[in-house]
Amino acid sequence: MAGDDIKSKQIVMALVNDTGFDPVDTGSLDDSWRQQPSTPAYCCDYGAEIMRKRLAAAVRGDAPKKRDKLPDLFAKLGSRPSHHDIIFMNRSINPLAWTSGTLGM
Q: Cβ neighbours of residue 51 under 8 Å, at least 6 residues apart?
């Protein structure tokens, strides 16, 4: 989650944690573009550690080029794609680059 109000972010982080998820602070609202559709972190269902690395890997301006490919990719999934299908598709447009067991960029 992104935000400019520290107190509000602490409340949201606690709520996310209380629901059993690992909260990830993505910075200010100015940095929220890092989690928009078609960025490396968007709709990819990663744990907190990898999510932080994927957020850092985002390149401003890349998402619209990838987002333009989504209608064709969704069409290939058929009329009733599963959660797994959608996650796999989103991961495929922003593949992980693994080096020696760590995320290499």
A: 24, 41
Rounded to 5 degrees, φ, ψ at 98 are: -95, 135
Number of other CB atoms surrounding residue 64 within 10 Å: 10
Query: What tens-digit pLDDT sequence spans the chain (105 residues)?
Result: 999 999 999 999 999 999 999 999 999 999 999 999 999 999 888 899 999 999 999 999 999 989 898 889 889 999 999 999 998 888 888 887 644 344 433
Q: Which residue has the tokens 């944690």?
A: 17
What is this structure's pTM? 0.76
The string of DSSP codes covering 1-67 is -B-S-HHHHHHHHHHHHHTT------BSGGGGGGGSTTSTTTT----HHHHHHHHHH--TTHHHHHH
Residues 13-33 as b/e (b if ≥16 CB within 10 A, e otherwise) read: beeeeeeeeebbbbeeeeeee
- Number of residues written out for the chain: 105
